Amino acid sequence: MDRSLARLGATLLIPLVILALAWTQELLDQLLFAGRWNLPMVRGGSLLGVFTAPFSHSGFPHLISNSLWFVPLSWLVLLHGRGAYLMVWVGVIVSALPVWLFWPGGSHGLSGGNYGLLGYLLSVGWLHRRPAAVLLSLLALRIYGGLLPG
Predict the structure, then answer these.
(1) Which of 30, 41, 90, 124 is most buried by its number of CB atoms within 10 A?
(2) Of 23, 115, 24, nearest to 77 (Cα)?
(3) How many CB atoms lie under 10 A from the CB of residue 83?
């Protein structure tokens, strides 16, 4: 029982650690670089930008907005396990490659992660066709559907 509680605690910490990286980057950016230290993915830029962009934001309002969506969406996906969460992030990175290759402007922030997490939650009910999964999908759509038009 203690091992399962420890594993649950560690699992719930995963999105908080990711978020802490984004907040640390933004704090350093604002305090040391006056908001000019961004790590976006830009067309023709380093491939490293695909991996650093989620941690870079255009200021605290952008970071706060992404943070409010990120943690609950992450926890809902983690209900399906760490493997599901990892696969969402693999999908987010793979789908970021065309943005990096072709998007005319820079892109950064946790928005791509948020869309990937929401997309997973919306599709899982349809794919699994179990009542609990369908309910989770409908709950995600009801609560986070406003994220879609953005």
Answers:
(1) 41
(2) 115
(3) 8
